[in-house]
Request: fold
Amino acid sequence: MERIEVQDIRAIVSRIAGIMAGKKEELIRLDGAMGDGDLGLTMEKGFAAANEEAQKGDEPDAGRLLMKIGMTITRVAPSTMGTLVGSGFMSGGKAVMGTTVLGAAELAAFFDAFTAGIIQRGKSKPGEKTIVDVLLPASKALSEAAAAGMSLPDAAARLREGAAQGLAASKEMIAQHGRLAYYQEKSKGQDDPGAVACTYILQGFVDHIRGTG
Reply:
């Protein structure tokens, strides 16, 4: 696959919805260890609604469709994580609005803006054990791959690798936001639930692009 069309975005959102449904209990367990335990429910509900919105529409503009997906997640799952992810999709969609096809460069622009939107909304910085610590290395790896002229599948593989490296590094950080921050040193060595959920969002993109999963 060398380009993502509108029908691919619909398939990606459907795939993410399926992943979140399958990972619901895991996310509940992770979030419940040092949080309120609702993350799995939030992600399942948010992406189920986003999938419904994506499938029923006839929007030809890829950016507008991604923005609609973000608005739906924000409306249906107005928790902290739902709002962050929704903001990411809205910011990313705005960055690629006006196109019907996304290649590696456009996907990189989407994820750069997705990341920036979440940083702006969440007021978080790298190193604070949040979703940002997965998104920044992932989006940077994708942008570098696109700039080097890599194919879309190979660039997507770099996105996945960057996310995995970011998640591993974030595990050794001390949380500075949310309920996990209450535990300070005890949060070190624990996965941030939002960061884990983020890897599942990226997985939906990568698996579709590479024809895996």
About this structure: The chain has one domain: 4-210. The mean pLDDT is 91. Residues 80 and 99 are 30 Å apart (CA to CA). The domain at 4-210 is CATH 1.25.40.340 (Serine Threonine Protein Phosphatase 5, Tetratricopeptide repeat).
